[in-house]
Write a structure and sequence with these properties.
Helix content: 40-55%
Oligomer: single chain
Radius of gyration: 21 Å
CATH topology of the largest domain: Rossmann fold
EC number: 1.3.1.12
Strand order of the largest sheet: 3-2-1-4-5-6
Number of domains: 2
InterPro entries: 6-PGluconate_DH-like_C_sf, NAD(P)-bd_dom_sf, PDH_C, PDH_N, Preph/Arog_dehydrog, Prephen_DH
Order of helices and strands: EHEHEHEHEHEEEHEHHHHHHH
Pfam families: PDH_C, PDH_N
Strand content: 5-15%
Distance between the termini: 43 Å
Family: Belongs to the prephenate/arogenate dehydrogenase family.
Keywords: Amino-acid biosynthesis, Aromatic amino acid biosynthesis, NAD, Oxidoreductase, Tyrosine biosynthesis
Length: 299
Amino acid sequence: MFKKVVIAGVGLMGGSLGMAMVKGNMATEVVGVDPDRENLKQAVRMGAVHRAADLAEALPGTDLLILATPIGVTLGVLEMAIPYLTPGTIITDIGSVKGRLVERAEAMLPSNVHFVGGHPMAGLELTGVVGAREDLFEGAAYIITPTPLTNPTALERIKGLIEKLGAKPIELGYLEHDGVVAFISHLPHLLAATLVNTIANEPEKELLLNMAAGGFRDTTRIAASNSLMWRDILLTNREMVLQAITRFRSQLEEMEKFIKDFNAVELVKILNHAKGLRESLPENRVYMNKCQEKNQRGK
């Protein structure tokens, strides 16, 4: 499908992409670029990339450059890459905020290099390539954010790659994407972290945390994600995240009012509404199904 692919940032996500591409024969050569040399060596050992290289050495002749770096440095890496890009190269990313990146990429790239914004809706609370897995994207939604300037051939090739990964390509405008993920990804992380910190600030926090059962652990699982990565995400998507917080606060205040008023009817109604919506959500990611099956066998 591709002759040469360069993955800049071979962590959990970049490593999982590379592993799927290597094992699925989606590229003749997958080259890893990463500032952490030990992580890069591990990526080669795991088969997440065929070989490691510096950015300037890796880029000439590249068909596809995947920017899998932390969102705070993605634009800087893209700027460094420009002098070494080959005409016809396609560039995509996996970042969870699109606005500024898409606008800057289209402004700075030469007309014969094509950018297609991307964001796989998958992940784990792990860092580094050691957590990478080839089935991470199977069954997951994979958002792409084309604009009127997006090259049609480049767009189709990225769609084809996503489908080869076993994911489902979904097209959204880049600003629409940022609004959507503020609610379904960024706000949940804020809530999980806030819930953990609420317990941590209680006088009997040790007792509370020691007694934490499955509900608390499931609800706060994502709070274990990389803090620096989430700092950059929340600040980069600041306006959309603040809107999501305002909407959530309104819902929380409504529930608080029902409890204060001892309004059992409305409380049941709102809880049932949430229950129905939650039960309608499909869990179709392969690795999650495997985890659930494993947990059931262990019971």
